[in-house]
Amino acid sequence: MSFVERFIKKPPVLFPLVALFHIGMLVFSIYNASTEPFSSLIWLQPLWMVAYTFAWLFVCDMKRWAAYAYIGVTTLSLLLHFLVKEELYHSSLFLIDAVFAMIVMAYIKRFN
Question: Is pTM, for the whole model, over 0.90?
Answer without folding.
Answer: no
